[in-house]
Write a structure and sequence with these properties.
The structure is a single chain. The protein is mostly helical. It has helices at 4-29, 33-41, 48-141, 147-232, 243-258, 264-288. Helix 3 runs antiparallel to helix 4 (147-232).
């Protein structure tokens, strides 16, 4: 019974010692908050595979942007070519129309007048040859001498009359040929050329529309390819259109124009400075006097 207090004291001391050892061990082994945040904040090292994939995405974005620029240039060139072809077709149609109109109003009349003049000249030649032959026959009818000379002169007059009649017949046939066949043929040929020119113009217009639609489709595909490539590589800065910076500059200029507004305080300051220099400045002068 005398040793009981000493045993309790020793047991309590051993218990406290064991509890302290366990607490110190847990404190040493438990991670501190600072070390855990540091480990969480430290980025994980990038793998070579990830870097290669990122490079591929960046190159894909650059290639897509270059293809978009090429598509824009090709679209401009194709549209210019289609516009030039349409303009050439329009000029050809206008030229054919003008030629046909000139043929109907000017050429036909000129050629008919020329052919009619040839017929009139042939008729006049026939009439003159007939008169000369009659005069020769009348002149040599009463003469009984120089039969050989008489026959020679009369033969020449008859031949001249025959040639004049043949010329008249030829000129009349030319005139009929011109009216009945030649002018109709040429008018028909000009009409066919005009029809072909109209068809060529319609084809040029359709080709221009088709080219415009094809180029719009090609540009849309190229723009979509750029968007897809940029979305696949979020780290690459997106290409901004040219119109946005110009629109952004205009609002920046407006505040600069309104900047001279705060001039009122300076005027007020000058007015306030005049008051002490005026009335208050006069009082000291009175005192000095």
């Amino acid at each position: 019974m005398k040793h009981t207090p000493h045993r309790l004291v020793s047991l309590l001391a051993a218990t406290f010692l064991a509890t302290g050892c366990v607490a110190s061990y847990e404190a040493k082994t438990a991670p501190t908050p600072a070390s855990s945040t540091t480990e969480a904040a430290a980025p994980a090292p990038a793998k070579p595979e990830d870097e290669a994939e990122q490079r591929k995405k960046v190159r894909a974005v650059e290639a897509a942007r270059l293809e978009l620029d090429i598509a824009k240039l090709a679209a401009d060139s194709a549209r210019a070519g289609a516009k030039a072809a349409q303009g050439a077709a329009e000029r050809e149609l206008n030229a054919v129309k003008a030629e046909r109109e000139h043929f109907k109003k000017v050429t036909v009349a000129l050629e008919l007048d020329a052919a009619g003049l040839g017929v009139d000249r042939a008729k006049q030649s026939v009439a003159e040859a007939e008169q000369e032959l009659k005069e020769l026959e009348g002149m040599y009818a009463a003469e009984k001498f120089a039969e050989t000379t008489k026959e020679l002169v009369l033969a020449r007059g008859r031949a001249r009359l025959e040639f004049a009649r043949r010329d008249l017949d030829l000129e009349q046939r030319k005139l009929e040929q011109l009216k009945g066949f030649e002018h109709k043929k040429r008018d028909r040929e000009l009409g066919e050329r005009e029809t072909k020119a109209k068809l060529a113009l319609e084809e040029a217009k359709a080709a221009a529309k088709k080219t415009d639609l094809e180029q719009r489709l090609a540009l849309a595909r190229a723009e979509h390819a750029v968007e897809d490539a940029e979305r696949a590589a979020p780290g690459v800065p997106k290409s901004a259109p040219e119109a946005k910076p110009k629109a952004a500059e205009k609002p920046a200029d407006k505040p600069a124009e309104k900047a001279p507004a705060p001039k009122a305080p300076e005027n007020q300051g000058e007015n306030q400075g005049e008051k002490p220099g005026g009335k208050q400045g006069e009082k000291p002068a009175e005192k000095g006097s």
